[in-house]
Amino acid sequence: MTAAARRGTADAAARVRGLRKAFGAHLVLDDLDLDVACGERLAILGASGCGKSTLLRCIAGLERPDAGTIVTSGEIGVVFQEPRLFPWLDVACNVGFGARDAHERARVADVLGLVGLANAAKRLPKELSGGMAQRAALARALVRDPSLLLLDEPFAALDALRRIELRTAVREILEFTRASAILVTHDVEDALALADRVIVLAGSPAEIAFTGAVGADATRAAILAALGVVEREGHARRSAS
Ligand SMILES: Nc1ncnc2c1ncn2[C@@H]1O[C@H](COP(=O)(O)OP(=O)(O)OP(=O)(O)O)[C@@H](O)[C@H]1O
To answer: Which residue ranges does the record assign to the ABC transporter domain (predicted)?
Structure first.
């Protein structure tokens, strides 16, 4: 099968079929299928290096699959682990940088308000805390009014309190915008707080080793078990296998 990625009017926010991606001789993903329904919030967990970001980057169009098809519908916004702001542009200009037309430029003030940065529009990135910088990156992703938000460990660089604050902000924004989302995270609490459904990738090439709905079968214990983590007396450790 040849690789193809296209925008469609699919009823799904993202539909992945037969995805293969290798880096040299290292086959990271092979024949992977995944559907994300419109409005669904999916969290992807898995051991470090198993291919979570590669999958997300393929869906984002930032990585070219070796085989398979990826169909997404609507606009995509991407937020990375680090904010990737232009240091010489103020927050409003950073957020507006990706705007393609007057309509999107007019949204800058709205999305800054949405992420809680209305009063920081004129600040340079060096004048922002880590949490504020990541909020600016989130605003930049939102300025095109994406129907699918791809979040690659967006809270990983933040301390525990900022992490919870931004996680809450993202949840409120997703509820407000009704956007679909795919969140790559190492944190089970992030997944439980933000997602409707959780998948765990495992193996090499990576397969979907677990899939479950939050509030039903995707419990904390079930996700940890799928990750190979056993909990004893309040402490979690990796299983010996
Ligand atoms: N551009 C690249 N060139 C070569 N190898 C790569 C490249 N990008 C990723 N890899 C490799 O592909 C594998 C999967 O990487 P990926 O970043 O998708 O994993 P991950 O599950 O997101 O890991 P982590 O949780 O540590 O971020 C890793 O072995 C990684 O070293």
So the answer is: 14-228
203 lines ligand 1 (CB under 6 A): no
Indicate the burial class of 234 (C-beta count within 10 angstroms; 0-12, 13-18, 19 or more).
Answer: exposed
Report which protein residue has its CA nearest ligand 1's atom 7: 23
- CA–centroid distance, 4 to ligand 1, in Å, is 21
Q: Are strands 197-202 and 180-184 parallel, antiparallel or unpaired?
A: unpaired
Q: What is the pTM of this model?
A: 0.91
**In a structure prediction context, what are the per-residue pLDDT tens digits for the chain, which is 241 residues long?**
556 555 554 579 999 999 999 999 999 999 999 999 999 999 999 999 999 999 999 999 999 999 999 999 889 999 999 999 999 999 999 999 878 888 888 999 999 999 999 999 999 999 999 999 999 999 999 998 999 999 999 998 888 888 999 999 999 999 989 999 999 999 999 999 999 999 999 999 999 999 999 989 999 999 999 999 876 655 556 654 4
Q: Is the CB of 54 under 6 A from ligand 1?
A: yes
Q: CATH classification of 4-74+147-238 is 3.40.50.300, yes or no?
A: yes
Protein residue with its CA nearest to atom 16 in ligand 1: 51
State if residue 48 touches ligand 1 by the CB under 6 angstroms criterion: yes
ipTM over 0.90: yes
Q: Which residue, 239, 224, 159, 234, is CA-closest to 188? A: 224
